[in-house]
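The records we work with from here on pair a chain with its fold. Taken together, the tokens spell out the fold as the letters spell out the chain. The record below shows the convention in full.
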Amino acid sequence: MFKYIFAGFATAAALAATTVQACPNFNLRPHFGGIQLNAGFLPDPQVRNVTAGGTVNLNRCGFGTVYTYGEPMNGFVTTRPDFSLTWRGGSQQLTIAIDSRADAILLVNAPDGRTWYYDDDYRGLSPAITIQDPQQGRYDIWIGSYDGTRRNPARLIFTEYNY
């Protein structure tokens, strides 16, 4: 009997480990590098070319605190972040946005490692997240797609202005 209970625990542990490995992991190196910005940066906005999409289904991932602007977290990203932002200084707001022809989604992990931000359709099919009084540190950013498509050209935008 104990052999079967242990086998059940081992199977459950293996499934849990698989699920964790197949979700966004902010400890991994970003695909497209990163940038350091200080409050009051110029030129504003800063824009980087990236690719939107992924195969990791966000519906299967558990997150801590998530700010979703009133919508469920749907879409597909990669396990590794696409980009990282190291933020320094004090500002009233920081907006991270995506401009893409694809139906893009945006997922951001805050420097505390527990707070997640998500947006799907801020302006048309393009997502944007505005963080009030952004904390200093590293923000990890995933640029995904709503429908699971990959290799979608996109522009990652950082601004302190109203977006």
